[in-house]
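Onboarding guide, step 5: your first structure request.
Type a short instruction followed by the sequence, for example:

Predict the 3D structure of this protein.
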Amino acid sequence: MYNFEFTRPTDLSVAVEALKAEGAQALGGGQTLIPVLKQRLAMPTTLVDLSAIDSMKGIRRMGDTLVIGGGTTHGAVAGSAEVANAIKGLVELTAKVGDPQVRNRGTIGGSLANNDPAACYPAAALALGATIVTNAREIAADDFFQGLYATCLEEGEIITEVRFPIPAASTYQKFEQPASRFSLTSVFLAKMQDGSIRVGVTGAGADGVFRHEGLEQALSSDFSAGAVDGVTVSAEGMSNDLHATPEYRANLVKVMTKRAVAALS
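The system replies with structure tokens like these:
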């Protein structure tokens, strides 16, 4: 490691002010940032630890919306009866994130802000049509993700909570890379209250998380494995690495979507 200043505010406004300093960097659960610091891929002069800000933690239901604080850990979501009753797919998702150490340190706000192309939460945010709330504004999930590790967050902007519309049903089907436990290709499928279907895909796209409109349209008309078979999922735009070819990932999108359909049928 190297020398840097460290501050752990208990108030959001203090954290926002601290992040205005040149070279300051927010620290959520640290599951991505700490390894990055060790490899010198980032060298902030000040780390602003958000873990002591209680106003950014917690889970609550507001009518037909589930609200999760940006500082809430994956483990808290996975173990929440409130989440299980409202959005079962989120419990399935968080229960499959990393290992117990990661789940009890990593946060939903940190995951969304980092936008790793193989992370799980971005697929849920897109599939559920979530609203990402920061200290400055509210952002629709469809507008939030902007490519590999890229979001529309401004410098120093902090995710304070995420608002998920409660669907009629949801599931998360993960095909993981066994060494890292990140998604090789995973699908979050949501049946919304208006009858529409939304499909979020992570781990497959060369530009990161995305919705597959072809699958959404087909399943909205006919919620069956046969409808999935009738959709062409192109290998163009899929990731290509030592773990899987674009063609393999394209096939996995359909396989995991069919598993999702089966889980909700």
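Each response can be followed by summary notes, for example: The domain at 5-49 is CATH 3.30.43.10 (Uridine Diphospho-n-acetylenolpyruvylglucosamine Reductase; domain 2).
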